[in-house]
Every structure is written in C-alpha cells, then in structure tokens.
Design the sequence.
C-alpha cells in the first residue's frame, strides 16, 4: 500500500504540473505562440479534374483540355528570413536587366523598359498593412501555354525556389480545338477566366465533361507548402459526337464560297443521316464587322423565320394524307395573279404570263403560290383548324427537344378570330399565305427533320448530336436513335410526295441541286423576310433562300438543308442554295464512292441494252434473231394494270401502248422520248382518265 500511495502522489503532481504549464502557455506565452501559429497555415484546396474531350464520330479530337498558366511574383518572399531576404535583393540587383531582356524575347509586344518599370512598380508597392512589395503581382496579364511557361520558369530569379525568388503561378485547364473553327458553335466554348461552359455541347454536357472536384489540404510550414491529398479528383468523360469532320469541312467551304459569290449575310447548312437522325455536319456562318464569315450564333437551331416555299411540301402532304385531292387535280392559275380574299396572290413568273392550267404535282414542281394556296383554301377554307391540325400531325410543328441551349420550337398558330393580339389574329388571308410558308416561324433544324421523315418513309427521327459517353476507353453510356413519330402520313401519301420531290429536281425549279451521278429529291424556297426592326419595306428587300432535300433519292442516305440570307435581287432558292446543296451532296457521295470492276469498260466491250417495258414484241424479235439470251429487268417486269406506270425515257409508241392498254387516254406533245407525264406513276387508274406526255 505505501508503494501504491507513492505512485498516486507522483501522478497527481505530474497532472498539476501539466495544468500549470498549459496555463502558463495560455497567458504568459500567448503572444509568442500566436506568432508561431500565423506561420502555420492549413487550407482545404479544391483540386480540379481534367475536363473530358469532345470527339468526332470517327474518334478525331474536336475539343480537348491542355494546361495554361498565369504567372505572378511575390516581392515579400523570404521577408521573415534575413538571409533569404538579403539573397533575394542581391539576385534582383544582379539580374533585373537580364530578366527583362529575356521576358521581352518571350513576349515581344512589351519592351524591355516596360517590363522593368512594371516589375519595379510591384516591388515598391506599399500594401495596406504597411509592408513594401506586392504578394501576387502579375508578370504577364494573360494565360500562357506550357511551353512558354517552361521558358519563363528557366529565367534568372524565376528559377529560384518560391521562398527566395518569389515566382509562383496558377494552373488552368484551357480548351483547344485542333480543327479551329470547324463546327465551333455546335461544339461550344468556355468562359476562359472561370472555366465555365458557355454554349453548345460544352454547356449541354457540362456535368459529364467536367467530372468531380477533388480535395487537398495545403499546409504552409515557414516558407514551404506541404500538400496532403484527401480526395482524388474524378476526370470528366469524353463525348463522341455524330459530327463527321470531312463532311463538316466540305459543308462549311461550300456555304462560305456561295456567300462570298452572292454577298450574303448569313448561311446555314445541316446534313442529317436518314436512318439514325445523326447530324453529320452543321454550319452557321454569319458576316462579321471585318467582312469575313464566322460562326457567331447557332442559327441552324435558333433562327426562326418564315420558311417560304419549302413549307409547301407540308401543305400538300396534309392534303394528300387527308385524301381531299390527288396529283391529277387541275388548278387554273391564269396569268400568274389571283385574288385571294382581297389580296393578290402572285406566282414568281406572273410578269411572263403565269402557268395557266397545271395539276397539283406540277404546281409543286414549279413552286406555284397560286396552285398551293388555291388548293388549301378550297378544301380547308371552311375549317382551317383541320389544316393546322394536319400540319401538327405531319411533324413540321414537332418539338425536337434538342439538348442544345438556344433551340426554339416551331411557331404555327391555331385559328383564333377573337384575340386582341394582332400577331395571333386569324383572318381570311391567313390560311392561303400560311400554306406557302408565311405567317409561321420555323428553324432550319425542324425543316430538315421533316424532310428526313419523308426520305425515311414517314418515320421522323430526333436529330442526334452525341452517340456515346466514353471513359478510359470504355463506353459508359450509349445514346440510341430516338423515333419521334413512327409515321407522319399514310404510306401512299409519302410515296407520292417522294415522287414529286424527285421531279422537282429532275424537271422543276430544283435542277441546279441535282447530280448526274445519282438521283436527288428536294424543294426550293425563296421568302421575303423582315428586317431587324420587324418590317418588310425598309428600302432593301431581304430574302431567305432555301433548298431542302435528300440523296440518293432511290435509296436515301442523307437529308440536307441549305439556307442563305441576302439583301436585294437576284435571289433564288434553287439557283443559290441549290448550288450549295449540289456541292455538298456530290462531295459526300464522292467520299463514299466504291467502284465496281464492271465500270472498267472500253470501246471493245459489248453490252446488251435494257429494254423498257412497253410493246416489246419488236425488241423480242431482234434479240431472238441475234441469239442473245435475255432476262427480265426491273424495267421489263409487268406493273399492276390498275395503276399508272412510269413512262419516262420511253418512246411515244411504247408509252401510248402502255397507257391505252390500261384504258387511259394518251395525249402526246413534242418529239423524242418521254420527259414527263401529267399523272405520276403509282396513281390509281380511274375511268375516263387522260395522261399528257411531254416528249423531248
């Protein structure tokens, strides 16, 4: 027990000693330890991850992150250490001139004298606490890349450790685009100073690209920093877009060349893959203050305007789908001017006498305003709501729900005669003018999606910009094609419209968009648009020129729309936008060109020509006499006897034979081979029907 008692007394005395020492430190030594604590700093620092890359459809880098630096000087570094302070002053005295000369070699825009004056200003600056010398003085006002940073870091004074020289820096993740401005507005930009997404896919997929911040404790012990990792940052994922670099470059060059040729203000082009809805190219060119063309705004998704004659396809598709009219319906357009509820409706050739009597299909081929507006007003004038509901049904009004910020859904209003809002009021002239593409607001992306649905046999696809999210070489998310509408119209209506659109290019106003190598289908559009103040009559007329279509027409792979904005005449959707469409389509098809050994023909090659369907008795006799074996081609296969056959390319004898053998009267005009027919192939034969054949 005496031994335990002694141990207890000793421990008690030690406890009192500890308490006494603690009280001594808290009172008598308080100022000393407060000063020590000021030299020991611990901060929780956020560690930024590396932002993910944006890739093209074939894996080429379109936007990636690289390090950039802002460089500073701490002119009070080592101030608490007299030895370090003396060494720093000696370094400055010996190397200031050499340092400024070397900085001038790296940054030639600032002279040696300017560098010296700037650094001395920071060195002698008086701070709020009375100390002399700035702690965070910028050496250069802008960010520099890694190579430049390494050059600066090797200079005298700057190569010393921070506690002596005072040189320090901040690191940022900068965004770089290897293909420069290619698809710039769709890829998007960042606010450089704050590393924040600004627009485009950078903004739409900012969360996936950004990743997750890490955490690190930074402790300062005297003049040195000790970094202690707590939570590692998670780098952002890469996104694989649908953009094809080759097609994008091709489309941009085609648009810019035509804009320069016509002196245009704005140009838009969208190339879309028919089956998937993938956007392979999207161009947004606008003339800047320097007279050159740049991507400033994503007008392809945001610029809503009156689309003009490309809208006529939607009007006729509604009529065909409702079954109120067929392609043989004849309209008396007269001399090209017709009064519509007190206002004159004019065709583009009204000064040349108009089109006189034309059928519905021909009205679309030549883009007759009277032909389209007359049909829509005749069959929907008493119930315009049915027409607008039809527009909604065929998909021209569909909200595409694009991921890109700035997209505006179409504006097509329902009939309302009681509103006090003048822009919403529905008058008797609204329907005929709406039917030809006025009094509506539609962005190019919606128009191309609608035409793509026609090319896709009625299935409307959502435009797709991103295919995959990839991380460390593995696909972590797949964005599948999205079907917005399984069918925008009846199959027969779609088939008829496909035939008409093909003839618009082969024998209508869209000839310049066509190609000798493959078939093209589409529609031209020329619309007068309002100026920046909302008026139409400000002295100079401004035009929105369009061509929307798809190719190859017999097996559609791509849908494309080209829109150009210009002031004054001449202005032609087919002659200007159609030319750009031609260059894009030919270039795209050339990239996918595959030659067959059968194409290697010479003058000694003998080929048996295909024999068109018709009165084949004579051809059969010739082939039998020459002992040439024959096999039926698609052209020779008998078509159904209750529909109009395709007669293009036939001689008059065969064409008349086919028609009259089906009970259809043939009216022949011209000589040569059949160039066009007034009733299109696939039309159901009715009693007493007459078909006019134009031969050239």
Sequence:
């Amino acid at each position: 027990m005496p031994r335990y008692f002694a141990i207890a007394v000793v421990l008690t005395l030690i406890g009192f000693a500890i308490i006494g020492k603690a009280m001594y430190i808290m009172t008598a030594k308080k100022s000393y330890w407060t000063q020590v604590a000021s030299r020991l700093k611990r901060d929780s620092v956020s560690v930024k991850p590396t932002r993910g890359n944006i890739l093209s459809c074939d894996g080429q880098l379109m936007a990636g992150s690289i390090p950039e630096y802002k460089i500073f000087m701490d002119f009070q570094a080592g101030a608490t250490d007299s030895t370090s302070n003396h060494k720093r002053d000696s370094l400055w005295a010996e190397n200031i001139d050499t340092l400024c000369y070397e900085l001038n070699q790296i940054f030639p825009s600032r002279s040696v004298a300017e560098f010296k004056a700037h650094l001395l200003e920071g060195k002698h600056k008086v701070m709020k606490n009375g100390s002399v010398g700035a702690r965070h003085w910028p050496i250069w006002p802008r960010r520099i890349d890694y190579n430049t940073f390494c050059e600066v870091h090797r200079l005298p004074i700057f190569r010393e450790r921070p506690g002596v020289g005072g040189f320090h820096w901040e690191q940022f993740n900068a965004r770089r685009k290897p293909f420069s401005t290619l698809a710039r507005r769709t890829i998007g930009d960042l606010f450089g100073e704050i590393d924040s997404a600004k627009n485009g896919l950078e903004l739409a997929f900012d969360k996936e690209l950004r990743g997750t911040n890490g955490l690190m404790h930074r402790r300062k012990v005297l003049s040195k920093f000790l970094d202690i990792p707590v939570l590692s940052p998670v780098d952002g994922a890469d996104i694989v877009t649908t953009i094809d670099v080759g097609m994008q470059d091709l489309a941009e060059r085609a648009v810019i060349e035509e804009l320069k040729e016509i002196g245009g203000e704005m140009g838009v082009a969208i190339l879309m893959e028919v089956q998937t809805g993938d956007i392979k190219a999207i161009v947004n060119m606008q003339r800047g203050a320097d007279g050159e063309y740049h991507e400033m705004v994503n007008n392809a998704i945001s610029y809503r305007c009156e689309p003009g004659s490309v809208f006529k396809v939607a009007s006729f598709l509604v009529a065909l789908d409702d079954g109120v009219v067929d392609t043989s319906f004849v309209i008396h357009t007269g001399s090209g001017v017709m009064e519509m509820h007190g206002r004159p409706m004019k065709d583009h050739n009204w000064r040349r006498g108009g089109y006189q009597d034309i059928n519905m299909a021909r009205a679309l081929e030549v883009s007759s305003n009277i032909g389209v507006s007359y049909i829509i007003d005749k069959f929907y004038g008493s119930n315009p709501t049915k027409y607008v509901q039809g527009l909604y049904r065929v998909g021209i009004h569909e909200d595409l729900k694009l991921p890109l910020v700035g997209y505006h859904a179409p504006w097509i209003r329902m009939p309302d005669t009681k509103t006090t809002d003048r822009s919403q009021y529905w008058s008797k002239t609204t329907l005929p003018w709406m039917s030809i593409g006025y009094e509506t607001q539609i962005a190019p992306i919606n128009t191309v999606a609608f035409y793509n649905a026609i090319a896709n046999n009625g299935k409307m696809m959502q435009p797709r910009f991103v295919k995959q999210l990839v991380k460390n070489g593995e696909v972590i998310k797949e964005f599948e094609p999205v079907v917005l509408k399984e069918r925008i119209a009846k199959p027969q209506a779609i088939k008829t419209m496909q035939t008409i659109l093909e003839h618009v290019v082969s024998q209508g106003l869209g000839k310049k968009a066509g190609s000798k190598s493959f078939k093209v289908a589409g529609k031209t559009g020329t619309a007068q648009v309002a100026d920046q103040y909302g008026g139409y009559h400000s002295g100079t007329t401004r035009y929105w020129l369009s061509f929307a279509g798809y190719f190859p027409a017999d097996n559609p792979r791509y849908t494309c729309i080209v829109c150009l904005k210009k002031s004054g005449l001449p202005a032609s959707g087919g002659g200007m936008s159609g030319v750009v469409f031609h260059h894009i389509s030919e270039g795209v098809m050339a990239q996918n060109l595959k030659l067959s050994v059968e194409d290697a023909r010479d003058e000694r090659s003998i080929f048996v020509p295909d024999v068109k369907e018709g009165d084949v008795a004579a051809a059969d006799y010739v082939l039998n006499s020459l002992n040439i074996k024959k096999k039926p081609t698609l052209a020779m296969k008998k078509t159904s006897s209750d529909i109009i056959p395709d007669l293009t390319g036939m001689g008059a004898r065969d064409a008349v034979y086919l028609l009259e053998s089906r009970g259809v009267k043939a009216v022949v005009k011209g000589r040569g081979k059949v160039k066009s027919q007034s009733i299109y192939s696939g039309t159901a034969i009715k009693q007493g029907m007459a078909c006019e054949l134009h031969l050239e």
The longest strand covers residues 61-73.
